[in-house]
From TrEMBL, chain A:
Domain Response regulatory residues, every copy: 9-136
SMART domains: REC (SM00448)
Originating species: Pelagibacterium luteolum
InterPro entries: CheY-like_superfamily, Sig_transdc_resp-reg_receiver, TCS_response_regulator
Keyword Metal-binding: no
Keyword vocabulary terms for this entry: Phosphoprotein
BP term (GO), one: phosphorelay signal transduction system
Pfam families with a match to the protein in the record: Response_reg
Keyword Cytoplasm belongs to the record: no
Record's protein name: Response regulator receiver domain-containing protein
PROSITE patterns on file: RESPONSE_REGULATORY
Annotated positions of the 4-aspartylphosphate modification: D69
UniProtKB/TrEMBL annotation, chain B:
Annotated Pfam families: CHASE3, HATPase_c
Species of the source: Pelagibacterium luteolum
Lineage of origin: Bacteria, Pseudomonadati, Pseudomonadota, Alphaproteobacteria, Hyphomicrobiales
KW Membrane (keyword) present: yes
GO molecular function: phosphorelay response regulator activity; phosphorelay sensor kinase activity; protein kinase activator activity
Superkingdom of the organism of origin: Bacteria
PROSITE patterns reported for this sequence: HIS_KIN (PS50109)
Protein name (record): histidine kinase
InterPro entries documented for this protein: BphY/WalK/GraS-like, CHASE3, HATPase_C_sf, HATPase_dom, His_kinase_dom, HisK_dim/P_dom, HisK_dim/P_sf, Sig_transdc_His_kin-like_C
BP terms from Gene Ontology: osmosensory signaling via phosphorelay pathway
E.C. no: 2.7.13.3
Broad class of enzyme this protein falls into: transferase
Residue ranges occupied by any Histidine kinase domain in the UniProt entry: 252-489
Length: 148, 497
């Protein structure tokens, strides 16, 4: 991630605070020091991404990367994904779906809607920690475009 | 009142019997009457014969006498012609009459008298004619005028008249009897005809009614059948829905359970890694320190915390295993089965091949004897069934003997395929025969690691393949699992769709 020139903000939408904390810890262990903004529900995340007016104007010229869980208490991650990819200001923002579901149709649907990466959370903690750490390594080399 | 089929049979039988009795009556009456008619007829014939004989005899006697009288008066030979004709026929006529009357003893005496009279009369006639012909007409007339000839004649005529009258009466009576019998037959036939008409009418009415009831019952059954099919379809849909619901439920539950478990495991790891700086801190103090705070901290850092973490670890690992097992089974149940042509011998060989090295290690052996046609079933599921059973046979082997595994396949007459997997392992206690198929249940000595899901999984798959699994076991010979599957899964899939 082009940390030096344009600081990328990681938006983490994850309802399980424990998971959120573990994800954050393991990303940090991979040497990623970017700002991580956690959201535990969809509404707050949508407010942050699209602003009070819902136009997405607030996200213009931001460098964002979204970590998205599909199971949220108030809305589904798929809906958030749909909105992000449909909004002209946020549509280039990379979305990493990180969820427990490995249902084939769900995966297809997310990619159809424009998800950039789909990762199933490993069941056991070691696998989980390992996967997140590798994801962090991946983040450290990936390019994130500026939103329109 | 509806006619039951039993009632129908009983009524029909009764009607047939009544009709039969009427017919027998008619036939018996007819036979009896024919017999009677024969008797009457014979009697009438006999009476007529007697009458004829009597009339003939009377006429002949009269002809002979009047011819004699004419000759005596005229001495003309022409008058003798009737006499000449008659005298030869008199005795035969008498004989005929005697034959007819032979059956009547009361006629014996008069008939004997008549024979004497005939002889005397004929003698008298020839004597007088001879005398007259010789010219002794006076002597001949003298004989005639003695009246003895006339008396004989009168006696014979009286008897013959009586015979004629009796014969006439017999004939008349016979005709009357005949008519009476015919009337009786007519009445019997009429009654029988009425009875038969009634029987036939009753039978026809009953058949009609029964048929109508049958028709009604059949249409009712058809309607019920239709209803039943609809109900079965409805229930099937309900069941499928419930099944899907259960699977979805299991899936959701396991997913939701897994999320907090990942947290527990994750933070346990964090806790564990947090232990090392504390250990380092504790290690900075001399081991023989008597400061109670340090002693307690050392105790906590080196013993209590690692122990607690170890228990949390092992428990969460176990829980994780259980959740994964449920997840696996719920996923397996939800997997769409794909029916394809499977040669059981090939399948058994490849499954045995996968564990061959383990069998060989124990110097054991496996034999395959499949005598079934190829089946249409889900290859993967059947492979898992056999694979699980073989794994168990090896896992729970008897420690003192080399592994012996036998796989036998056969097809029953109803088409179902049975696969027996026999081992010579340690066996399963009788009280556990049902339990081993339940999730998380295991039998016997728990000296081999396992989660208790293999057989539960096998049973679910066997049932999905249209069959089931049973077992026979004893500790001496080992265990035989019998898996049954449907020969053609497509038929089941169609009926499920």
């Amino acid at each position: 991630m082009t940390i030096e020139s344009k600081p990328v903000t990681i938006i983490m939408i994850e309802d399980d605070e424990g998971h959120a904390r573990l994800i954050e810890k393991n990303i940090r262990r991979a040497g990623v020091n970017n700002q991580i903004i956690p959201f535990t529900n969809g509404t707050d995340a949508l407010d942050f991404l699209f602003g009070e007016d819902g136009t997405g104007e607030v996200s213009a010229h931001r460098h964002l990367l979204i970590l998205l869980d599909l199971n949220l208490p108030d809305t589904t991650g798929v809906q958030i994904l749909e909105k992000v990819k449909a909004n002209q200001h946020t549509k280039r923002t990379p979305v990493v779906v990180l969820t427990t579901t490995d249902d084939e149709r769900e995966i297809q649907r997310c990619y159809d809607l424009g998800a950039n990466v789909y990762i199933t959370k490993p069941v056991d903690y070691d696998g989980f920690a390992n996967a997140i750490r590798q994801l962090g390594l991946f983040f450290s080399v990936m390019q994130v475009p500026e939103t329109a | 009142m509806p006619i039951t089929s039993k009632g129908f049979a009983r009524y029909s039988l009764a009607l047939i019997i009544v009709g039969l009795l009427a017919l027998i009556g008619v036939v018996a009456a007819t036979i009896w009457l024919v017999e009677r008619t024969q008797v009457y007829f014979e009697e009438v014939v006999e009476a007529r014969e007697g009458r004829q004989a009597a009339v003939e005899l009377r006429n002949l006697l009269q002809d002979a006498q009047s011819s004699q009288r004419g000759f005596l008066l005229t001495l003309d030979d022409a008058y003798l012609e009737p006499y000449q004709n008659a005298i030869g026929r008199i005795q035969p006529a008498y004989d005929r009459l005697a034959a007819v009357l032979a059956a009547y003893p009361q006629a014996d005496e008069p008939m004997a008298q008549m024979q004497i009279d005939i002889n005397d009369k004929l003698a008298e006639l020839s004597q007088t004619i001879d005398l007259a012909a010789a010219g002794q007409s006076d002597e001949a007339l003298a004989i005639v005028t003695t009246d003895t000839g006339e008396q004989m004649m009168t006696r014979m005529r009286t008897l013959l008249d009586a015979v004629i009258a009796a014969a006439d009466e017999r004939t008349f009576n016979g005709i009357v009897d005949q008519r009476g019998a015919a009337n009786a037959l007519r009445i019997v036939a009429l009654i029988a005809a009425l009875v038969i008409i009634a029987v036939v009418g009753g039978a026809a009415w009953m058949v009609l009614r029964y048929t109508r009831e049958l028709d009604y019952a059949r249409s009712e059954v058809e309607a019920l059948n239709h209803d039943l099919e609809a109900r079965v379809a409805e229930r099937t849909t309900d069941l499928r829905r419930a099944n899907e619901e259960v699977q979805r439920f299991a899936y959701i539950v396991t997913h939701d359970l897994r999320a907090p478990l990942v947290n527990i495991m994750g933070f346990t790891s964090e806790l564990e890694s947090a232990l090392s700086p504390i250990n380092a801190l504790v290690a900075k103090h001399p081991e023989d320190s008597t400061d109670p705070v340090i002693v307690e901290a050392r105790q906590t850092a080196l013993e209590d915390l690692p122990e607690a973490i170890g228990f949390i670890r092992s428990s969460t690992r176990k829980m994780d295993g259980l959740i994964n097992a449920i997840l696996k089974i719920s996923r397996e149940g939800g997997r769409a089965l794909k029916a394809e042509r499977v040669d059981l011998t090939d399948l058994a060989e490849s499954t045995v091949g996968a564990v061959q090295h383990q069998i060989s290690d124990s110097e054991g052996e496996a034999s395959i004897d499949i005598a079934t046609p190829p089946v249409f079933t889900d290859r993967l599921a059947l492979e898992q069934v056999l694979g699980n059973l073989l794994d168990n046979a090896i896992k729970y082997r008897h420690p003192d003997r080399p592994i012996q595994i036998e796989i036998k396949g056969r097809q029953e007459r109803d088409g179902r395929i049975f696969i027996d997997v026999s081992d010579n392992g340690r066996g399963i206690a009788p009280e556990d025969h049902d339990r081993v198929f339940e999730l998380f249940r295991r039998s016997g000595n728990q000296n081999v690691p396992g989660e208790g899901i293999g057989l539960a999984h096998v049973r679910i798959m066997a049932r999905n393949l249209g069959g089931d699994i049973t077992l026979k076991s004893n500790p001496v010979h080992g265990t035989t699992f019998t898996v049954s599957i449907a020969p053609d899964l497509r038929a089941i899939a169609r009926s499920r769709a």
